[in-house]
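Review the following:
>
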Amino acid sequence: MKLSSLSNEDKCGLCRKYFIGGFFFLPFLWVINFAWFFEEAFRKPPYEQQRKIRLYALQSLVGFIAWTVVVIAWIAVYQTQRVSWGAVGDQLAFVFPKGIP
């Protein structure tokens, strides 16, 4: 789908749908939303719906960054502390490690 073929109202609606979709554990939609609507939000001449598109695009970027930080923090904690958690640490894994690293 080309954004140029959509009306400004439809662009704003699509941007909003992608933003809301990111909350359903699909944060990759947030980075797609930001990349796809970047041109509309920041480089096109001003129009009425542009302010909302810019808001959704920026919030999508912030949401993706926050989600990424949380996932990286969890991976770091799990990888470094799994052994000290004993059986619980092993039960959280999909692939059960054997022995102590």
About this structure: The longest helix spans residues 50-81. The CA atoms of residues 17 and 69 lie 23 Å apart.
